[in-house]
Design goal:
Elements: H1 2-24, H2 28-33, E1 38-46, H3 48-52, H4 55-71, E2 77-82, E3 92-98, H5 101-112, E4 120-129, H6 141-147, E5 158-166, H7 168-172, H8 175-189, E6 196-202, E7 211-217, H9 220-231, E8 239-242, E9 247-251, H10 254-261
Antiparallel strand pairs: 1-3, 1-4, 2-3, 2-9, 5-7, 5-8, 5-9, 6-7
Helix pairs in contact: 4-10
């Protein structure tokens, strides 16, 4: 009886610990919606030596990667993308969100220390921060109502990342002048709000960029037309860098990407 009592107590403690871990897991919706969240976009190219390993060795190596994702799941939201075949010098993108950029760094350091990680060349890294919207509160009610348009339901398999850097004139311009340009910019996006989902990250001081623009869509033709429309507005004249690189990939679950890399 005494032994069974100890067993029951140990089982109860285990259940409590498992419950605590589950409750501590990151809230995906909150991290993707709230301001004050740090994001890191890490792009990797798999080196040639990886493909020289036998299939069994590659399969064993990818299991280490799964452990890293699980271990950091309480602090970091990690999304994965396959760029291979669509972007030069890039195979995989990992997008991280957390309350502290240190958590993103710890995740990537451990990832790059795995067997697979030692075969990954980090070709690009972007860092940014989410903030409340700057210009929308001062725009007309018509524009505000248009921005409430919901994107069409259904999967959006494509992701596009476009880094942006503004010129010095943009930052010294008066608020009213910038607001007028951003109103024109916003109006140009309205026809594409249903099919192209966008998220903005602020990078000044955290990177050599000023902004990272992230898009998801099922209609790349609409995205193409959206960019053409934005290239016609006055605000575009103040983009010192637009893309370079522009990253195009497909949104894939981690298991699928690891299966492709272990073939």
């Amino acid at each position: 009886m005494k032994r069974s009592g100890h067993f029951a107590m140990a089982l109860l403690v285990s259940l409590i610990l498992l419950s605590s871990i589950s409750e501590a897991a990151v809230d995906r919706d909150k991290l993707l919606k709230d301001p004050g969240v740090y994001a890191t976009f890490a792009v990797f190219q798999v080196d040639e030596d990886w493909w020289k390993l036998d299939k069994a060795a590659r399969a064993s190596a990818v299991s280490e990667v799964k452990t890293v994702f699980q271990k950091h799941g309480e602090a970091v939201l990690a999304d994965t993308y396959l760029l291979r075949g669509l972007v030069e010098k890039a195979d995989v993108l990992v997008r991280l969100h957390s309350q502290e950029i240190l958590a993103n760094q710890n995740f990537l350091v451990e990832l790059m220390g795995t067997t697979l990680g030692k075969h990954l060349k980090n070709t690009y890294t972007f860092n940014g921060l989410t903030k409340p919207v700057n210009y929308v509160p001062a725009m007309s009610e018509d524009v505000k109502n248009a921005l409430k348009t919901q994107t069409d339901p259904g999967p959006k398999p494509y992701a596009i990342i476009v880094p942006i850097r503004k010129d010095a004139e943009w930052w010294t311009m008066g608020q009213d002048a910038r607001l007028a340009m951003m109103k024109e910019h916003t109006e140009a996006t309205v026809p594409y709000l249903k099919t192209v989902k966008r998220k903005l990250y602020h990078s000044s001081g955290l990177d050599d960029l000023d902004f990272i623009t992230y898009f998801e869509t099922a209609k790349l033709d609409d995205f193409n037309n959206l960019i053409i429309a934005l290239e016609k507005v006055k605000e575009n004249q103040h983009n010192k860098q637009f893309g370079n690189p522009t990253l195009l990939g497909t949104i894939r679950p981690l298991d699928e990407i690891l299966e492709i890399l272990s073939r």
